[in-house]
Each structure stands twice: as C-alpha cells, then as structure tokens.
Amino acid sequence: MELGFIGLGHMGFPMARRLIEANNRVVAFDTRAEALDRLVALGAQAASLPKEVADLVETVMASLPSPQAALDVATGARGVIEGARVKRYVDLSTVGSQTAVHIHGLLAERNIVAIDSPVSGGVSGAEKGALAVMVSGPRPDFDILQPAFETIGRPLYIGEKPGSAQTMKLANNILAATVLVATSEVVVMGAKSGLDPGVMIDVLNAGSGATSASRDKFPRAILPRTFDYGFATGLMVKDVRLYLDEARALGVPVEVAEAVGRLWEATLHDEGADSDFTSAIKPIERAAGVTVGPVGQRPWSQP
Predict the structure, then answer these.
(1) DSSP string covering 19-71, please?
(2) What values do phi and psi take at 116, rounded to 5?
(3) CA 124, CA 129: separation in Å to the nearest integer?
(4) What is the Rg, in whole angstroms, of the alpha carbon atoms belonging to the chain?
(5) 97-153 per-position pLDDT tens digit
(6) Contact status, residue 36 vs residue 46, Cβ threshold 8 Å
C-alpha cells in the first residue's frame, strides 16, 4: 500500500517503521527533522508539509499529541485537507469525539473520508505491533485499510458513527488511569505498614486484585524505580480531561473519574507533563512519607 504518516513521536515512529517493514510505501512528515531523517533512513520518503503528504498518497495516517495538533494537521492551512490526492485520513491520536466529529465534517466537505483509529498498548505495543486499534468510519474503508491496521496491532471495528472509536478509547484510558493510581495507593499503604512491595504485587497478581498496573507497570517501571514505561503524564492528563468533558456532556455520573482526575492533576503539577505516567505513585508516596521498592528491598520511611 501507499501510505502517508504524520507524527513520528514515541508511538508514531514505531508504527511507521512497522508499516515500512511490511513493504508499504510510506511518505512521512514530522516537525522534528531528526525523527524524519531516522525514518527516511529506514526507507520512507520525506515530505515538507502535511499537504505534501496528502498530495502524494490516497491514505494519510497521523499520530499526534493533542486535539489541536490533530485539527491543525487535518484541516489547517497547508494541512491534509488541501492535498490533491488524499481520499482518507486516519487519525491514530486520542482527541475525543467532539474533535473527531469536527474534523470529519470539515474533511467531508472536500470528499475526504475521516477514520478515527485511536490505539492502546503503549510504546511497547507499538514496537511489537501489538496495539489495540479501535476504528470507526465507513466499513468499506476499514476493509481496505485492514492490512495496515493488522501491521500495527489488532484492529477492532467499533462502528460507522464518527467519533465512536474516540469514545471507546477514552473509556479504556480512564480505566487505565484509575487502576494505576488505585494500585499505587494500595501498594503505598502496604509499604507504610511494612509489607514488601514486590511480595504485594505477586500476591495481587495471584488473586482477584490483579490489574494492568500490577501485572505490567509496577514490575516494569515502578518497583525498579526506572519510571520509563513510555507514556507521558501530560498525555494521560489530557485523556482524563477529555473523558470528563465527554461524560459530563452526556450527563453521566463522574464521581470516580473526578477523584482520579484530581490525582492525575497532582501528578502533573508535581512531576511535570514530560514525566513518565508511572510517576503517579510519587505524590502518593510523598503524602504517606514512604518510598516503594526497589524489588527485593524493604520500603523505607522518609524523614
């Protein structure tokens, strides 16, 4: 296939690399020359603007950090919307349903099909081609693109309604955000009482308290104190805020999500937007006066 790819960040680069390795022709753009040069070295063709990508291929994919970036790339000046050849725009970003519907409407005026396709699975999933790929849009276009989606992960067709894949992604991410801070609170409580955090994680994973955080994030990035899982705190806070906005607009209860949101806002304030999202445990540790891990070491109380 001939594909455009815009946005070569932590998630976008490995997805674009896998598409090249699967013998697709990839025309790429990123605002950072070093990221673009790395992909060109792997076989991509460089473009100087989103519009140029859309001049050269019929399908443009994008992995972008914010709703505003997605809107600018898709519909802004010298954006995909001005491309001469593009027929479909695939947004792999998490932007929320309102932004997705807005982009869909603007692109439709130019006879460009908008396909929402947010992904879940983190950098590791992107590297391995093991992402959950949530897709909403016309079924015929999904069928055309299914080989590309299967190159980056497992495609899951949500439906025709614009923005529905975005709603599904926000539901997924608020649960991921919740279990990470909830598991952090529980492990900090145990550490404060004198339990070994590594033993706690083993017990949780053997019982009914297992979560994606205890199975993956704690062993990989929290107990070793590396905090290098590969997803930024700022991006998680963005996703939590988008969920809250959408849930409130729908008139559904948000008591749990609001409490989770406060914990993530505290992490953003204390650790910064660029910190790894596994750093969410740190404000909880400071409040309790205890540090969790590393594995095999007893927790120690802070003075």
Answers:
(1) HHHTT-EEEEE-S-HHHHHHHHHTTPEE-SSHHHHHHH-SEEEE--SSHHHHH
(2) -80, 130
(3) 8
(4) 20
(5) 999 999 999 999 999 999 999 999 888 899 999 999 999 999 999 999 999 999 999
(6) yes
